[in-house]
Amino acid sequence: MKRFNITGTKYTPDISFDPNVASFSISGVSTPENSLDFYQSTYRILEQYALEGSQKLEANIRLVYFNTSSAKCLYDIFRKLVSVSSSGKQVIVNWIYDDDDEDILESGEDYSELLPLEFRFVPVPPGSDR
Fold first, then answer.
1. What is the pLDDT of residues 85-100, one digit of tens each?
2. Which of the following CATH numbers is that of domain 4-124: 3.30.750, 3.30.70, 3.40.50, 3.30.200?
């Protein structure tokens, strides 16, 4: 498998996947014009990792804002991570949020209640690079 990167914009998040260190991350803002189109390549990468990956996968999610269509796409990404987990690999989701942003924290908590994944909630000071 190859590394995968999408550089974020004002409306789309940074997305990176490095199979060599089993790391997947999404960060920034997610309000693309067409969320389904934007996230298609990410779905394919995670589907491929479920079949070919050999290590546990750590997913770092640090979104500062996402719209409703992105919320559905995030749910679909988490479902792909469930598939990775079901293929015998450990999956850990680090939900990283500004410690004063209760809305983002609650969104992560909602996902964690809906999905059989290990979520870790990581508060950081607003504006930090973690």
1. 999 999 999 999 999 9
2. 3.30.750
